[in-house]
Design brief:
Layout lengths: L10 H8 L1 H8 L6 H14 L3 E5 L7 H5 L4 E6 L2 H10 L6 E5 L13 E6 L9 H14 E12 L4 H11 L1 H10 L10 E4 L12 E4 L1 H10 L3 E7 L8 H6 L5 E7 L2
Parallel strand pairs: 1-2, 1-4, 2-3, 4-5
Antiparallel strand pairs: 5-9, 6-7, 8-9
Helix pairs in contact: 2-5, 7-8
Amino acid sequence: MMQGPDGIGMNRNKRYYKNSKVVDRYSRLDGLQGPEQAFLDMYRERLTGLRLLDLGVGGGRTTLPFCSHAGEYVGVDYSQEMVHACNRRYRNLPNAMFEVGDARSLPQFPDGHFGAVLFSYNGIDEVPAEDRRRVLDEMHRLLAPSGVFFFSSHNLNFMSRLFAASFWSGPRRYLMLRAINRGRRPLGQDFGLFDDGWQNLRFRMDTYYISPQHQFRQLQEAGFDGIRAFSVESGREYEGLEDLRSSVEPWIYYLCTRP
């Protein structure tokens, strides 16, 4: 069982993504978020002929837009049920394959195998904090030189906004959020572990939130450069860390390059 640094088990997140109703709902999703579309527009020509890894592929929301441009598309998810759903949904795509895998270690792929890696919908935040660097190191290993890594992660600055919105939306939701997060200690000023209630409090989910400036540091320490950040709400590119420090949106997309 995966454990967070405060001893809270992370495998209940995985159980959520194995639930048949959740798999069915994710299998019906399509369309790109603003930053994903911006990334595709920027790298459309470059993706042609490249191998692209779509991590945390879920029910295949991002498959068609990216598969139609990549030379070879590989979707990976740690939920076998999600992978089965993708195989059913996209069984006629000749250049796509789907398999079960863990972002912390993907030994089935050799070094430098992919020209681009996509890890959308905050999949990296399902990994315990002590394993987050393992994910970044593995992405660096899998990318060819000049390969690009594009992913999203929850914004620690959003937590005050979340609790304020919950308070005004109704006392029951606010009190439940406070109750399920009681006793949870911040993991320093740069991280927090929260049950944010995104799943309407029906499923308990442990989610890591990270400050944008610390996410930049993590990427730099893992050997990435050319780091850029994009707003999930507008799709615009942030103008450096000073701009990011004032961001209170729920998550942020990051784009970086392996030198």
